[in-house]
Amino acid sequence: MRLCPSTWNQVPYETLKRTTRERKYVLDDIYKILAALPTLAEGTDGAQKLQDMASALQHLKTKLEGIAEAERGDLSRLLARVRYLRRVGQPEAGRLIDWNRPRINRLVIDYLLRRGYRQSALHLIQTSGPGSEEVADGHIFQPIQSVIAGLEQHRCTEALAWCRVHEARLAKARSSLVFRLRKQEFIELVRGGDTHAAIRYARRHLAPWAATQMGEMQAAAATLAFPGDARARRGTGLFADSQWQELVEALKQEVYRLYSLPPISPLTIHLQAGLAALNAPLHVQRSRADPLHLATYAGLAEGLPRAKHSHSHLICAISHVPMDEHNPPLVMKNGHVYGQAALRAQADRDDGVVTCPVTGYRCEYSELKRAYIS
After folding, report:
1. Residue 307 and residue 356: Cα distance in Å, rounded?
2. Is residue 339 within 8 Å of residue 327, measured between CB atoms?
3. Residue ranges of the alpha helices (H) in 89-176?
4. Treating both helix axes as pointing N-terminal to C-terminal, what angle do 96-115 and 138-152 enclose, rounded to 10 degrees?
5. Model confidence over 282-309: pLDDT tens digits?
6. Is the full-model pTM beyond 0.70?
């Protein structure tokens, strides 16, 4: 089996596009300041205005220097990927495993970075030959490690700071991550018994979300009526510790979406593709040579289609209606496939946006691709 490059080469391109856009905004600010120069002579505070203008230009100069450094990094990573693609070539006879080794290493590196095993990922990068660091996406995962660590220690401060940096992108994607973080901080105030502080916090930080998150707001507000012993029970409901792990996963999904990374590890996708081919009917006796006789692989294959069918029918998981020429299958970027009718109905209800019911992934209806199955 030959492993495809997947979407790893899109990351520096996406970040370069955003950095270039930021450069444009900074330059626009500079032009506005320079356009105001002719008016400095008016009034008696011209000297103070000139000093303020110089300070503003110095600040913008610093921002441009940071943008230039980020652009150099993205261009270097893009160049490394282009060089890598030129070196790929065709495998020699009998050496397919060696030919696939760099791709296998990169899939494992991506998996380790997603799981937070940074030291193991760095070790594999260092032992994978020159250029491996530039084709890995460690520069994306490294900054969010402290954010994830804060959530694991039951703090939202770092995550909210990260959201402020990416506020415009999260708003454009209609993300609810900020609301979920604010709701968790509210719950912690309720858990601590500080009712007055919790009410003040809800009025300031939760009330602005009433138009889109009314149901969850009401559920959170209801916790104010819980007695102290109910708040102490941390194993169920909004007081469960599992809420923090759900926030970690929600943060990761937003990172993947911002940088056009697949929501599932490419390593998992490749493994499931291979396991689907081995996923024989239940009555087949599995030998020790079959990977699916191991519990780990059997878990990955759970829910995958069986390899052998005399007749196959594609059913939309949303509408439970067959997908055929009258209801063609459409593919989301996260790999999930649903019927056109159900997705069109979603788009009509949500201003052209469709949502995957399994992963929560959202995208424009125009981004969907038609699947042709023979």
Report:
1. 25
2. yes
3. 96-115, 118-126, 132-135, 138-152, 157-165, 167-172
4. 30
5. 545 566 667 777 788 777 777 777 665 4
6. no
